């Protein structure tokens, strides 16, 4: 089946179509409630999750389908040493589509090759998190009406933050984005992601350490959590985790219509007082994540949304 390991697996037109479908779904919830009747989704989560697993599951339930799966490998035969490939060859017999999260980079690709049904990457280690990016793009569309011609600051753990890698990769495809990469030296953006920006003539980037010095230039500030689970050394984590804390004082130097995004969960990096600021968009991202997963699941299954009129391809 067609899988989604990274958003590079689908065309730019298909991404635009998913954004269009999600907006349709939001305003036609009753009409779409039987789109995936009889379908079964498996959620195979080898790593903790609140939003991603629950929104994948809710998305399938709201489309009329059903859900099976495990949250925590200790209750599956993985704990006895079963491989990812054998697990996916097995689960392919039970379900129509799989969403999988795993702590190892590349696990989703291995799974997609072993499975005979579509596999959606719900996060593979510090590599990619494509469905989070779909939620992020929908949030940028609703805030700005566009996902290009923006100055996008990404702040925090740019080394291990897979949501950042997916978002940069995808924004480069649409082009005309100025990236401001804000991190300590120890948590800079990986070279393969920098290379993606460099390969995009309409995009530019700077790497800086000081959030306060650049916050006034940004249209979007994408905050991230320092990824404790990816550190080898607890002392390094403790030293770096509170490098950036966005509070109302810092936000007072930002543009009045800047959007603050965060994939969540947050620890300390956004003060709770910021939640009431109109620039805070991170709980909108949560809602958009569910809608985009509804659009994605129905699309990968080839199940048409009743009453939906597809986007026309752009004239070239
Ligand atoms: N944003 C995100 O992936 O959240 P969870 O880890 O809770 O799924």
Structural features, described:
There is one protein chain. Helix 2 crosses helix 11 and helix 3 (84-91) packs across helix 4. This protein is of the alpha/beta class. It has two domains: 7-128 and 289-301, Aspartate/ornithine carbamoyltransferase (Rossmann fold, 3-Layer(aba) Sandwich); 130-285, Aspartate/ornithine carbamoyltransferase (Rossmann fold), CATH 3.40.50.1370. Helices cover 36% and strands 15% of the residues. The mean pLDDT is 96. The two termini are 30 Å apart. The strands form two sheets. A five-stranded parallel β-sheet has the order 7-6-5-8-9, with helices on one face. Helix 4 (107-114) links the parallel strand 3 and strand 4 (119-124). Phosphoric acid mono(formamide)ester binds next to helix 2.
**Helix- and strand-based class?**
alpha/beta
**Tally the helices: what do you get?**
11
For the terminal residues, how far apart are their CA atoms?
30 Å
- Poorly predicted runs: none
- Gross CATH architecture of the largest domain: 3-Layer(aba) Sandwich
In total, the number of domains comes to 2
Strand order of the largest sheet: 7-6-5-8-9
What's the count of strands?
9
Sequence of secondary-structure elements:
HEHEHEHEHEHEHEHEHHEH
Give a quick summary of the entry.
By secondary structure, the chain is of the alpha/beta class. It has eleven helices and nine strands.
Keywords:
single chain; globular; 2 domains; alpha/beta; Rossmann fold; amino acid binding; Aspartate carbamoyltransferase; binds phosphoric acid mono(formamide)ester; 11 helices; 15% strand; 316 residues
